[in-house]
User: Fold this.
Amino acid sequence: MSLKGRWRIVEMEAWDKDFLDLVEPAYIHFGDTSSEFAFGCVTGSFGFVDDNDAIAFDWDGADEMDEARGNGWAELQDDGSLVGEITFHNGDESGFIARRWESSSTAC
Assistant:
């Protein structure tokens, strides 16, 4: 299995579901040349992903239009889900759970 593709963030430890989907459905996308995530008012991007089942990454982005950055990790689980953590530099951190998401109606 590979991390590549779009994943729907279904749960985060630090924020409830209403916040996660505040602006758009929460997701993390692992691509060939770039990767990105969005939840609440937070967006972030990071580099490409090899065909692995785990990754550690540093990200740059925005939190309510203020510059933000941090790091994170993600790992495929035996049940096909994705678990990981997104951390803000000198700030919040939250574990997350995601499920593979192939919705054509929502652009990433």
